[in-house]
Write a structure and sequence with these properties.
This protein is an all-alpha fold and about 450 residues long. The protein is built from 16 helices and no strands.
Length: about 450
Amino acid sequence: MYRDLTKGNISCSLLLFALPMIAGNLLQQCYNLADTLIVGRILGKDALAAVGSAYTLMTFLCSIFLGLCMGAGAVISIYHGKKDDTAKKFAICHAFLLIFAVTLILNILVYIGIDLILAFLRVPSAILQPMKEYLLIIFAGIIATSLYNFFSCLLRALGNSVVPLVFLAVSTVLNISLDLLFIAVFPWGIKGAAVATVLAQYVSAIGILLYTIFRCKNLLPSKKELHYDKQILKEILNLSSLTCIQQSVMNFGILMVQGLVNSFGPAIMAAFAAAVKIDTIAYLPAQDFGNAYSTFIAQNYGAKQYDRIKKGTRQAFAISISFCICISIVVFFFAKNLMHIFVLPEETEVIAAGISYLRIEGAFYCGIGCLFLLYGYYRAVCMAEMSVILTVISLGIRVLLAYLLAALMHSEIGIWMSIPIGWVLADITGLVYMKKSMAG
């Protein structure tokens, strides 16, 4: 169940390690996918717009502690590659306390500032109250999401990508079942979707926590080993904080784009909500493959197998680009069919806007696929500051162009066009720097 990525066939190891991660995150997307599908079909476009806008906000909030988890996971992977079990246990303990403290503070702040958040997002008055009701409930799941992500990142860092998938599968089935019960059977409306998601999140969080405590005791420090280690905490803080910044900047940029989308009204908001779900699921395998590649790089970096890193990098880019080309073709030609999954046929304005988004952005999935690999590489070799730079390039250009082109074109098409331009420019920068760093 635990995979050693420092030996064996590289492509097979990467794919076998990545597949459970891909399946797990596809299931995780089902949390919001179920909300989107059921809410859009039963409660209508205004409720769909509210849930979709809330999804973008929650993605940003979760990116803060997800970035911390990913950074900590890279440190743990490096110690695992070095076969230093004592340092690995110290890293696990320090990372958990740090991430849980940040999560608690974040949870308190979002409840205090919910009205300011809604104002920043420029939420139309027609959906302001239902979106606030939804958020007040969904915020209760932040701690559960943080716990699940920490322990799943921990297990994946050590080569176990199967167990996180099992707990997600159970909670996803529960989420969908409760969605149908609370929305289609009970008249709970948008609140029912939020309650279903939060309950499912706690099932996966508590499940993986108990599994780690009772089945992975060798990973947990004993009472004698529970003491402060300044050097290890410094390593975790350096890598985790930069990864957190990278993730947060990326999703904050998306949040700013969401605010611009909201200014075009509920129809465009609903189109964006549905299209983003399709978009996220389409390139999610490339994202998870990038995370698997990052674990591969970190373990081999710890083991000082630099030739294996170079060989694995070439193979990883070939696999990711091949997949992205295939998925781009599917999304481009079946954009209308995909939109019909979430939106009723009579909502012609919503469907048309969603199709244009998917065809413009979907044609360039190779750009985001390469970017995920670059993020993973720089995080794994303790150069997370480069991931931040690439994110600033990608998102900075996206946000600036989105506002500029939308104003010049007086259309949401300008927003859609800005996204792949940002990807491509960040890719060029990251690949040039990678080539120089590997040559050195």
